[in-house]
Each structure stands twice: as C-alpha cells, then as structure tokens.
Write a structure and sequence with these properties.
By secondary structure, this protein is an alpha/beta fold. It is 36% helix and 18% strand. It is built from 12 helices and 12 strands. The chain has an 8-stranded mixed β-sheet with strand order 1-2-4-3-5-6-9-10, with helices on both faces. A two-stranded antiparallel ribbon has the order 7-8. A two-stranded antiparallel ribbon has the order 11-12. Strand 11 and strand 12 form a beta hairpin. Helix 2 crosses helix 3.
Length: 329
C-alpha cells in the first residue's frame, strides 16, 4: 500500500444518506470522503446499508458512493426494468448526475454482475473491478433462489413477511447456523433480507430482479463469454470458501477467464466475506487500488479485443445464407 498518505478521519456520522431524482425516480445513496471515486454496489434484496461498516474506512482515502439500486432500500420502487443491464445504466446515470467521470467499482452478488455489466457497457468509465461473490459466472446457485424464481413466489414471500411467520423463519435460519451449513454462515444477513421485504412492492421488485438472472435451472446470465474484454482492466475477485449462494468454484472459474485478475478466498466465510472479516476486506481493497493503475481505455484497443474474440479465436462472419466463414489473416 502507498505510504505517506494522510488519512482523513471519517466517522459513522459523516456517512450520509442522500437522494437525487433521476428520470423522475428518487435514487438514494450513501456517500462520504474525498479522493478517487469508489462505487459500492449491493446485491439483490439488500441496500447500501450492507457497506456501513466499510464506508468510513474507505472514505479516509476515497470518495465513496454506495447507491440503493432502484427498487431497493430507500430508492423508489416503480414498475420498471430490473435487469442487470438496466441497473448498470442506472449506476451510469447516477455517476453522471454527481459529476463522477471514472470510478473503481466494488460489486457484491447481483451487484458484482452489475459491476461487470457496467465495465462491459462503459469501459471508458471504469478504472478497476472488485467482484465479491459475484453472480453471472456459472449456472449453479442456491436452490432457495431457484425456488424463489418460480411462479407463486410472491405469495410465499408475502406469507413469510407476516408477523406470525417471522419467528418460524428465524428458527429455520438459526437451525441452519447451528447445523454449520454453508448457508447458515450468513444467518444474520439472511434475516436482514427477509426483513427488507415488508410490502408487496418490495417483494415484487425482488422477484422481478431475481427472475431476470435466475430460473428453476439456475443462473441464466453469464459474463464468462465476455471476460476476455477485461484484459488490461485491474480486477480482483473476493469469495468466501463457504459461500452457500454462489459456490467458491465460480471464483476459480472467473479467475481463469479474466486475464491478470487477482483472487482472494476468505476461509470459512459465507456469501458476505466483507461482513465476516471487514478489516481484511478493507485492507485488500485499499491495497488493490493503491498498487494498480486505473485501466486505460481506447476504442482502438476495444476493437482489437472484440476482433480477437474469446480465447483468441477470431470473430466469424456470417453471410446471407448463414454459412460461417472464419476470418483469416
């Protein structure tokens, strides 16, 4: 890590929840600090509050921005597009409103998929990527999420939200923790997600978002086919060895597919490694930012990567008869 940097003290009281109206919808976000921008993107059903323990530490060196994605937290919950691409657009628009030109993106779970999509759609705005238990690497995902994507999920979630069902739900989650299951490693966070869906609109957004990335067979969105485009983009992958939502195997798969990426495994941690060991997480992110130069994007280089194709296989041309002719030379 760079030495000699004067750290600015930042307390919890300095982390403010603010609002901006973008496209007619209220967008909530937490922000603190000064310096190079770092954007923290939460996962499905979560909010910027998930980063509360980390923001003061990061804000000693950086301008930290943690949005509540549309439909989450204190942001509006309209009937809208809740796809990964739409979320990436929303992050882009919020950065534009706030006058942030380029940033390091840290994304957790669904937020990792959003960060990767953002880097794909707007590489010129992306300096670095930190993907934490990120979705979009493989089909495997916890069966609970596959079930939540099935028809009728809204009714089940409504039932679970009733006061009479809170205690049984908590007992089931506590039992998973006592049985030392992988999913039980995140018992407090799972309880928080249940409490974050208090009304029909919140539950509808959760299901619509989930169905955009998961069906009964597993994850339907993948970033592996475009990972080669991260060449030259500093990328770090952080995973819990006992992630019961997105298995650790996905971390190794993504690491192999992303040229020059770093991989950090938190032994014994679940799907929220930044909650399991926030001090280590903070140190890793700070060191990563301080020891890597921001990505340099150019249209020429982007075109070269696209033409080179995945695994260095040249892009094919398809004629009017749908015959594939491999580009040579």
């Amino acid at each position: 890590m760079a030495t000699g940097t004067r750290l600015r003290p930042v307390g919890d009281q300095d982390v403010r929840l603010r609002h901006r109206v973008v496209h007619g919808y209220r967008r909530a976000y937490r922000t603190a600090g000064e310096g190079p921008p770092v954007v923290l993107i939460h996962g499905i059903g979560d909010s910027s509050a998930t980063w509360a323990e980390l923001i003061p530490g990061l804000a000693r060196r950086y301008t930290v921005l943690a949005p509540d994605l549309l439909g989450h937290g204190a942001s509006d919950k309209p009937r809208a597009d809740y796809s990964v691409a739409a979320y990436a657009n929303g992050v882009r628009d919020l950065l534009g409103v706030l006058g942030i030109e380029r940033a390091t993106l840290v994304g957790h779970s669904l937020g990792g998929g959003v960060a990767m999509q953002f880097a794909y759609q707007y590489p010129e705005l992306t300096e670095r990527l930190v993907l934490v238990g990120a979705g979009g690497v493989g089909r495997e995902v916890n069966p609970v999420l596959r079930a939540a994507a099935l028809p009728g999920a809204e009714l089940v979630l409504a039932l679970l939200s009733r006061p009479a069902m809170r205690r049984p739900a908590r007992l089931v989650i506590e039992l998973m923790r006592l049985l030392d299951s992988d999913l039980g490693q995140d018992a407090p966070d799972l309880l928080g997600l249940v409490d974050a869906l208090p009304d029909a609109r919140s539950r509808s957004v959760f299901v619509r978002t989930l169905r955009s990335v998961v069906d009964w067979r597993g994850q339907v969105v993948t970033m592996l086919d475009r990972c080669y485009l991260t060449q030259g983009m500093p990328t770090m992958l952080i995973w819990g060895s006992r992630d019961g939502v997105v298995p650790e195997a996905h971390a190794h798969r993504a690491h192999a597919a992303m040229p020059g990426s770093r991989l950090e495994i938190f032994e014994g941690a679940g799907h929220f490694p930044f909650h399991a060991d926030p001090a280590r997480f903070l140190a890793l992110v700070e060191d990563f930012i301080e020891t890597t130069p921001g990505a340099e994007w150019s249209a020429e280089r982007w075109g070269e990567l696209l033409r080179g194709g995945r695994f260095g296989t040249p892009v094919a041309e398809v004629d009017s008869a749908y015959e594939v002719v491999v580009e040579r030379g």
